[in-house]
Prior knowledge:
Elements: H1 9-15, E1 22-27, H2 31-38, E2 44-48, H3 56-66, H4 69-75, E3 83-87, H5 93-101
Parallel strand pairs: 1-2, 2-3
Amino acid sequence: MPRALPYNKLIDLHERGNPAFVAGTVSNGSLDDLTFIAASDDDGVIIETGHEGFSFTTLCISLHCLCNRHRIATKGNLLPDVVPLWRIPPNTRDRDHWRSAG
């Protein structure tokens, strides 16, 4: 019986005792960097959304750039070769209030 596809490549590598290589932190909307990483042999990438401001539209475009459609068509399944992880900024409303009140 063929092995079921994993939900996440990074978790699958960890469960098998293999190392996972993550490209590091890339700013949300850095389309050239994400396109380059999509063609690389990295297992994952961290998309930074804290410094540029969080935008679902920009994140959606970034995720589209991270898809390497040639690899998806070649391997025959929809699992991403590079797993996206993104850092969502904390709610800073309270911190901003403290700065202005202090």
